[in-house]
Design a protein that fits this description.
Strand content: 15-25%
Number of strands: 12
Low-confidence stretches: 1-5, 104-109
Number of helices: 12
Radius of gyration: 22 Å
Distance between the termini: 47 Å
Largest sheet: 6 strands, parallel
Oligomer: single chain
Mean pLDDT: 84
Structural class: alpha/beta
Helix content: 25-40%
Amino acid sequence: MHEKDFDITIKKVNSEYTIVLADGDLLSRVCGTNDSNLKLIEKHIGVPVFTRGNEISIDEEDPRIQQEFKFIIDRIVDEISDSGDSAPDLIHSILNTGLVHENSGSGFYAPQYAISIPGAIRKIYPKTRNQANLLKAFRNSDLVFAEGPAGSGKTFLAVAEALSLVLSKKVNSIVLTRPIVEAGESLGFLPGDLEDKINPYLRPLYDSMNACLPREIVHKLTENGIIEVAPLAYMRGRTLNNCAVILDEAQNTTSEQMKMFLTRMGENTKVFITGDTTQIDLPRRFTSGLVHAMKILSGIPEISMIHLSGEDVVRSSLVRKIVQAYEKDILSE
């Protein structure tokens, strides 16, 4: 299903601001069971919301509130078109990552960051505050560290942003890499060519791509060399220009590997580094390159570092509880 199957239009009459949806069935799903979503929206924006036919309206002249109202309804419609779901958890997520103040002195509120990918299955929205901060970091910094537990969205959002950059022709290619921490089996003895050997390690990145784009587009981008996969060890001596680079599982780099990787960065290049410092598989004698880099580079303003937690896990509510339980156990040690 492609981005936004349901069209909406806007009507303004005096102070009344009205969004016209495709039909009454869509409006019913937006409002939720017994208007539960409507009540949450009213509480959030602070003004009554009323409906008639396939229209949903507020009687409010403030352009900031009108814009926030439109953003909320537009995103609910987007999410419904993707999953068909308008459960309270979704509505809470939308309200918590709705609009942000831009601190420009004008008091203007701007829509929160989202990722639009040409030809995408859907528009990508942040699900939590920290994810929204991560998307903002992608736009504002050329080098971004995203550290957090499994399921917190760090890799998925990095992949979506990289796809947006390459398909919007802001960069020419995507480079995917990760350290190979082997479990008793040498990479050289695995069957196939280099791509065959490394692909199993990069499967999570491809899964994220296939969640954003039709599989045939991802395959074509890979075949044409626009998406390149490479083990971290093969980065030595290269300069990466005009591309989006994702280093995944960065907690398993050594300090020397991380330094080598960071110094590959060339002109018009975005680098997204993702990892989980609770899942370091290096031998004890090695310091994690992710931990070391985030410590010594934290004072450089051009570098963004975003920490995600169990509260950002959106894979499932059960996974979120499992991650939070482990976080509490680590803190209690």
